Amino acid sequence: MPKKRTVDVVILGSGPAGLQAAIHAARKKAATLMLGRLKESSLYWAHVENYCCMFKVSGEEILRTGRAQAQGFGAEILDQDVLSVSPAPGGRFDLALEDGEIITAKSLVIATGTARNKLGVPGEKELLGRGVSYCVECDAGFHKGGRVAVVGDGSAAAGGALFLTRFAATVHLVCNDLEVSGALEKKIRDSAVILHRKAKVLEIVGPDRVEALVLDNGPRLEVSGVFIELGAKGVLELAAGLGVALDQDMKYIVTDKRQATNVPGVFAAGDVCGPPLQMAKAVGEGCVAGIEAAARAKAL
């Protein structure tokens, strides 16, 4: 049986919005859990010189300081990604983590950012929407009984491949190396997923729709769908599972002034809410989201 526990606030995302939400939720004495790896934040690789009262400083330094602050106020931080999020009784949310643990949250803050990493190979752009997808939960149903491939090294790719086994007859997972927990890697090995390690995609083939995937280590995979999952779960996947409303372009989460979404108990902050994609905006929204999420959790 998987380990289960309940916390007040779960924050998805390890960037400035998520960290600020964790700091404020924890300061409100809410049991706070933040999920996400340090390097998944785009800020990690940047230098900041336009943030008030701060001269040029590395994003890595900012994130490490923020983590220490959040933990100092009592927040728990796990370097894991969430594999799935679903509504639970009593206005709560169940989250399945990489290591198999199930977390029930009274409030949820989505601060995952918006960047969707791309492969940058021939056929990717041309066949987008015609077999190429960046959202497993959105498009899995189009491949019932078919042959598909998932590309990526992390938990989103591994979890997506496992999810696709419910629909597709054949599921390939193409990766350089699986950078996931031991428990999740075991699930992959024990499943019907065909694992291709030390492999790189050279081309996605098809004149009108995806027909095959060409790898650098020899095999040509005959598939009708390619799911590119080069990071943690993004806004489309999370929104699809919870019914969170997106803007008309299906890119950003819609929130009110309390950073609340249309789903009670779900808040959002940072780049996931739209431009300007700046740390100052992310921190401000994270502050509001953390305070509101803690208040909602305490009220349940």
Report on this structure.
This protein has helices at residues 16-27, 59-72, 136-139, 155-164, 182-190, 235-242, 279-299, and strands at 4-12, 32-35, 47-48, 57-58, 76-78, 82-88, 92-97, 102-110, 132-133, 147-151, 170-174, 194-196, 201-205, 212-215, 220-222, 225-228, 266-268. With 300 residues, the protein is an alpha/beta fold. The strands form four sheets. Strands 1, 2, 5, 6, 7, 8 and 17 form a seven-stranded mixed beta sheet that branches. A five-stranded parallel beta sheet has the order 9-16-10-11-12, with helices on one face. Strands 13-14-15 form a three-stranded antiparallel beta sheet, with no helix packed on it. The chain starts with a strand and ends with a helix. The mean pLDDT is 92.
Number of strands: 17
Average pLDDT confidence is 92
Looking at the structure, what is the overall shape? globular
Return residue spans where pLDDT drops below 50 for at least 5 consecutive residues. none
What is the correct CATH architecture of the largest domain? 3-Layer(bba) Sandwich
Structural class, judged by helices and strands? Answer: alpha/beta
Q: What is the CATH class name of the largest domain?
A: Alpha Beta
How many structural domains in the coordinates? 2
For the record, give the distance between the C-alpha atoms at the N and C termini, rounded to a whole number. 27 Å
Helix and strand element order = EHEEEHEEEEEHEHEHEEEEEHEH
Helical residues, percent: 25-40%
The CATH superfamily label of the largest domain reads FAD/NAD(P)-binding domain
Amount of beta strand: 25-35%
Rg of Cα set: 19 Å
CATH topology of the largest domain: FAD/NAD(P)-binding domain
